[in-house]
Design brief:
The protein is of the alpha+beta class. It contains 7 helices and 12 strands. The chain has a 5-stranded antiparallel β-sheet. Strands 10-7-9-8-12 form a 5-stranded antiparallel β-sheet. The longest helix has 23 residues.
């Protein structure tokens, strides 16, 4: 693998509307989503493989186009731009390149011959997107790796509805965590939800601004939409086992920017409260 291969990969990345800086001497790329400055990734070479800055193998030499597609999806840009790339070179010592961002779509149907994303790819892309809500992306990534959880700020990319476990379990009509997880996946249409088993709380990630909707203008012991300045302890997207640690994804984020519907969360709340009311009435009787 040589600098020509790196330049070839950079060219493919630019077709997706990504801004690319090439460091030939270090055999390294810095790739950014121009629509969100926090979505950035360093791509290095290791033998015949391309790897991310945190040692995730992202592609192989000779398969630069497929590698570029995986990187683009990881940085939430999934389709090539229609406009041709324009590469502005930096001084020859570094061989840098960049381009002006075109308009691109984030969610598209797979085309024949397109690379099929693995679960690991989806976790990586969703995790990269979530990390853009961190105050310090590198520190947050390190905390995920070392502790399995990091603080992310609500009100930029998303916010969260905090739900008491008693309410969620009532809505699911089960206390079995796996059964509850399956229920959440169906009731919230695959939107991301994680649980804090220590404090018996669930967090459904919803669009920023949900708290301004009339149905979420209140607080209660059972449910609360967190405000724009709230910080949330969010688990690593790969943590999906309720038996490991205190926080895990019941429904892991499977795609950048895919969130729970506020209406679906409101319906879950209504169902849970109804079941709790019936149970209390039966107990009293």
């Amino acid at each position: 693998m040589d600098s020509n291969d790196l330049q070839r990969l950079a060219g493919h990345l630019e077709k997706y509307g990504l801004r690319v800086t090439v460091d030939d001497s270090a055999m390294r790329l810095n790739v950014k989503n121009p629509l969100n400055s926090r979505l950035t990734e360093e791509i290095l070479t290791e033998g015949e493989q391309y790897v991310t800055g945190f040692d995730y193998a992202i592609g192989e030499h000779g398969h630069e186009q497929a590698c570029a597609e995986r990187i683009a999806r990881m940085l939430a840009l999934g389709t090539p731009a229609t406009a041709g790339p324009h590469r502005a070179r930096q001084p020859a010592a570094h061989g840098g390149s960049s381009m002006t961002p075109p308009n691109t779509a984030h969610h598209v149907e797979a085309q024949p011959g397109a690379l099929v994303q693995t679960r690991a790819d989806r976790h990586l892309a969703a995790g990269q997107w979530l990390l853009s809500a961190a105050e310090d992306t590198q520190r947050a990534r390190k905390e995920w790796a070392e502790n399995g959880i990091t603080l992310l700020r609500c009100g930029t990319l998303f916010t969260a509805v905090r739900l008491a476990a008693s309410l969620v379990h009532a809505a699911a009509d089960s206390n079995d965590l796996r059964d509850v997880d399956a229920y959440l996946g169906q009731a919230l249409l695959g939107g991301p939800v994680f649980a804090d088993t220590r404090w018996r709380l669930y967090y459904a990630l919803v669009p920023e601004g949900t708290g301004r909707l009339p149905s979420w203008s209140y607080r209660s012991e059972d449910a609360e939409c967190l405000g724009p300045n709230a910080y949330l302890g969010v688990p690593d997207p790969t943590h999906t086992d309720p038996g490991v640690g205190f926080s895990y994804w019941c429904v892991p984020p499977h795609d950048p920017e895919t969130l729970c519907s506020p209406e679906a969360v409101a319906q879950l709340l209504k169902d849970g409260l109804c079941r709790l009311t019936v149970a209390e009435a039966n107990t009293g009787a």
